[in-house]
Amino acid sequence: MTAHMTGQLFVVVGPSGAGKDTLMAGASAADPCLHWARRVITRPETAGGEPFEGTDEAGFDARLKRGDFALHWQAHRLRYGVTAAELAPLLAGRSVMVNGSRAALPAVQGAYPGLVVIRVSAPSAVLAARLAARGRESLTDIAARLQRASYDLPDGLTVLEVVNDATPQIGIERLRAAIYSVKA
Question: I need a surface site. Which of 13, 33, 135, 176 has the fewest CB within 10 A?
Fold first, then answer.
């Protein structure tokens, strides 16, 4: 590939517990041409989950003011950012996956009109069990997350569906199949 080629941006969305991070970690491990963009999040890195850079509100604000973020949004009382460096592999022809938010999709589409959204879903009982296993939220918080879980997306987007209701390996293969259906 030559440096002038551009890769494909995939924004992976779905409710908490759908397994987005597990699927993206597995897909990027299986294919070095897929880059999983690391996010900056206003929560402590000790909170677990995906590999991310933790920061506080002041740190996030400073980076936002400097123009560090190619993408940023707010969801679930947290702020999220993706640096330009994390999206740079697009310029080298690599595909980039971002764990995104439905609410941020219009802004992302404005900046990256060719983006493809991958909506990961799972049955409510599976979501509840996964959220409980994470141990980061109370049962009340989990119930609230499940009540507000929605699969609605803005109009005008290219959307691919991945159902993650089986083993992690099956989910990873479903995600990879969705990605390769676009790359073909």
Answer: 135
Listed in sequence order, the residues at least 6 apart from 101 whose beta carbon sits closer than 8 Å to its beta carbon are: 13, 73, 75, 80
The H or E element that residue 97 is part of is strand 95-99
**pTM score:** 0.86
Beta-carbon contacts of 104 under 8 Å, excluding residues fewer than 6 positions away, are 71, 72, 73, 75, 80
Tens digits of residue pLDDT in 78-117: 999 999 999 999 999 899 999 998 888 988 998 898 899 9
How many Cα atoms within 13 Å fall on the side-chain side of residue 93? 5
- Is the separation of the CB atoms in 2 and 93 below 8 Å? yes
